[in-house]
Write the C-alpha cells for this entry.
Amino acid sequence: METKITKEGSTKYIVAVEVPEAELRPHFDAVYRSYQKNIKLKGFRKGKAPLGLIKKLFDEEMRGEAIDQVVQSVFKEVSAKENLRPVAPAKLQDIHYHPEGRLHFVAAVEVVPEVEIKNYRGLSVEKEMYEVAEDDVAAALADVREQMAVMQPVEDAAQENHYILADFQEVDITGVPVIGKKFENRFFPLTKDGDDFNNQIAQQLLGVKPGETRRVEIQPLRKDASQKEKPELYSVQVKEIKAKQVPELDDELAKDVGKFETLDQLKADLKDKIIRQTQSNNRRKLHNHLTDELLKQNPFDLPEAMINNYLDAVVESAKEDQKQIDEAALRSQYRPIAIWNLKWEIAKDKIIEMEGLKVTDEDKKAYISRIAAERNVDEQKVWNSVKGERNQKRLEDDILESKVLEFLEKNAQIAEIKVTRKDLERARELSLTK
C-alpha cells in the first residue's frame, strides 16, 4: 500500500492511497463469504448457494461493499500510523478501482490540530486578594437572621413590609367577575421594592384587614407610550396578613443555628467560611486568568468540524430539556465558549505531554479527601461516586487538569491586588450598565 499525505492549512490533510490487488483480495473474499452465508437463492437452502453463482449475480454490489470496507479500514490504519486524529468522518474526493489492478482513493480529513505550546511558563497575571471586613460578617449574619425568621399572623391593618395571602378575581366595570380570571392563594409582600404590578397592588392594599375584600385598579404596562390601555380591575379577598419576625442578634440566635453557644462563636465561624469561600473564588479567578493568558500567548486555529461537533452536543442537550429552541441563536451564543473550551483542552493535553504529568494513587486519595472536605461528606461516599471505568477516567482528567493549573500557577508571575466588598459591588454595577 502506498500513501501520500498533504497538509492543507493547520487542521486539514489530503490523504491519497493506492491499495494493490493482493491487499484487496482478503476484503473481497470476506464480503463474498458474508453474502454466501446470509443469501437465499431459489433451489438452494440458505447459505448453501455456490459462491461462483453468487459472484455472478451480485459481483458489482459485493465489490462496492468491499471497496467501502477497504476505504474505511485503510483510512483507519493510515490515521493511526500517521498519528492523525480526525474530528469528523473523512470526505472522499476521488475513488477509482481497476479490476485485476489497484484501488486508488483520495480523502480530505479535518484533524485535531497539532499545536506547539511555547509560552506557558512565566505567564503574567493578576490575583485578587479579597479582604474580609466586618461588613461581610454583618451581611452573613443578616442572611442567618432571614433564614431563621418566622411569619406571625397580624390581626390589625396591613402595613408596608407585611405579607398578604389573598384571592384575586378580575371584574368588569360593573363588578361582575370575569370568567376564568380568578387567581387563588397569591402570597406577596406589601413593598415598594417589587415590580410595577406589585407596587400598584401594595399601595392600594395598605390598611386592609384579614377577611376584608377590596377593589383594586391596575394600570397595565404600556408597550407603546402613545397608546392608553384600560386598567384591569380586581376584587381582592384578603385571607391572611403576616409579618416577618426576625430574631434578635444575640446568643440565643447562635444557639438556634446549631453548634454555637455564643454570638461571637457564630461570628467567628461565619468569618472562617467567608475566608475559605473567597480563597476558593480567588483561586478559580486566578486559574481563569492563567488559561486566558495561556491561550492568548499561544494562538492556533480549530477545524470548523470540531466546533460544530461541540455545538451539536449543546443543541441536542437543549432539545432534551425543552421542546422548542432557537438553534441559530444557541449556536451563536455558545460558539465563543466552544472555541475557548476546545482550545484549552488541546493546550492542556500538550502541557501534560511535555511535562510528563501523570496521576498516581496518592493523587487520587488527596483529591478525594479535598472534595470530601469541601462538600462536608464522608470520603467513602466520594469514592463510591467514582466507581466504574468512565467515572475513573473523569476523575483522572480532573486531577490532570488540576495539575496543569497548579503548574501554570507555580511558574507564573503573579501580581496580587487587594479588593474589598465595595470594589466588587462597584465592578458589578459597572458591568450591569454596559
Q: What stands out?
A: The chain has a mean pLDDT of 87.
